Amino acid sequence: MDTLNDSLQDLLKILREHPHGITELDLMKQLLGEPENRGDNLELFQRHFVLRHLLYRLRDQLWKRRLGYLEIGPIRLRLHPYSTGREQLGQRDPLRDYYLDMNNLSNTDDKEVGRLLDSFWQRLAAADDRQQALTEMQLQEPVDLATITRRYRQLCQQHHPDKGGDGARFHRINRAMAVLRRYYAV
Length: 186
What we know:
The structure is a single chain. The chain is mainly alpha-helical. The protein folds into two domains: about 1-110, no CATH class; about 115-185, Helix Hairpins, CATH 1.10.287. The protein has helices spanning about 1-15, 25-30, 40-65, 95-100, 105, 110-135, 145-160, 165-185; strands at about 20-25, 70, 75-80. A three-stranded antiparallel sheet has the order 1-3-2. It is elongated. It starts with a helix and ends with a helix.
């Protein structure tokens, strides 16, 4: 238990030394040192998991003691002063639940890490496709399916080849609508 408290104190010290935030990679290097083999996805996952576990434990402790709020973003981490106006930590947070369950660390093997990485890259590609589709439809977030559908009809009327429009643009609009339908369908 002393090792955990020491790790949390070391983590807190580093976060306080970076009032504007620190990247997860820089924090990991300072707290855990350089990885032995950068190409080993399982080792990198384990180091990431341990760091996230410590971050969520520290965030919970700081909030409970009203000492601060730890913002845990996908890349940057930042310690903020405690403020009663901040969103409560009591809301369900699936990422917190995942990283606080040490079974997820011990039950994740090299094959599972590969599956997680594949899933991540697929979601990233899908997000890029969605953004391109929104751009094609001349829309920006936040947007809902009803707004997308209205814009789609407007653009179809304007660019339909039977009405003198550009056939290639009409095809891109239809392709964009197919992407957005998959993403925004309830």
